[in-house]
Amino acid sequence: MGERKASKDGDRKVGRRALLIGGTVAAAGSAVLARDELARLWWRTPGVEKPRKEGEVDHAGARWVAASEANWRRADRPDDYGIDMVIVHVTQGSFDSAVKAFQDPGHKAATHYIVRQDGHVAQMIRELDVAYHAGNRSYNERSVGIEHEGFVDRPQDLTDEMYEASARLTARICARYDIPVDREHIIGHVEVPGTDHTDPGPHWDWDRYMRLVRRARTAPA
């Protein structure tokens, strides 16, 4: 009887101690989560603006050309929305016409980048912000969009310089956000659920592009 009672008391003491420790750990965990949440969201309070440098680009060598603020949404990616995808587009027009469209507030769409046929890269929206490019809100929030100058029915528009510059850009994006270099995470606009677009079209050479991205991904930065 005595041994049994001692056992029960011992179990009760251990249980209370575990409960106290568990409560302390849970409280500490909650405090860490609350601190992280405040650190991430402090700039969203009224009158507070997250620091940004005008004209700053995310890709070395890109030239900043700002899109209309009507064509993207301010965010704090990847803190508020994780980035795990690159979406490839073709402009169905010239580089200049794409820039003009993305600067038009009535267009209601824009990508983060445009790659010209000669390999020049323009950045129009910061990667931390959500561009309206995929025609699917969830995909917009989780992706970086890249336009390529040309038409889907003109294979001659898809130049060597364009493929190589775009592959370097995609490789750097994948490195920044630890995105796997595969066709599940690097997709065409046509592959976005719910879209009615066909780009980058039948002439886009995915095998070639993915080889170039993988090569650029393993090359020194």
Characterization of the model:
With 221 residues, the chain is of the alpha/beta class. The chain is built from five helices and eight strands, in the order H-E-E-E-H-E-E-E-H-E-H-E-H. The protein has helices at 2-41, 95-102, 137-142, 160-177, 206-218, and strands spanning 63-64, 72-73, 85-88, 113-115, 121-123, 130-131, 143-148, 186-188. Strands 1-5-4-7-3-8 form a six-stranded mixed beta sheet, sandwiched between helices. It has a two-stranded antiparallel sheet with strand order 2-6. Helix 4 (160-177) packs across helix 5. Residues 1-27 have low confidence and may be disordered.
Write a concise keyword list for the protein shown above.
two-stranded antiparallel sheet, six-stranded mixed β-sheet, 38% helix, alpha/beta, 221 residues
Please bin the fraction of helical residues: 25-40%
C-alpha Rg, in Å?
24 Å
Subunit organisation of the chains: single chain
Average pLDDT for all residues: 85
What is the element string, with H for helices and E for strands? HEEEHEEEHEHEH
Described by strand count, sense and barrel closure, the largest sheet is: 6 strands, mixed
Low-confidence runs (pLDDT<50, min 5 residues)?
Answer: 1-27
Question: What is the count of helical runs?
Answer: 5
How many angstroms separate the termini?
A: 73 Å
Main β-sheet, spatial strand arrangement: 1-5-4-7-3-8
Structural class: alpha/beta
Strand residues, percent:
5-15%
Can you count the beta strands?
Answer: 8
The gross shape turns out to be globular
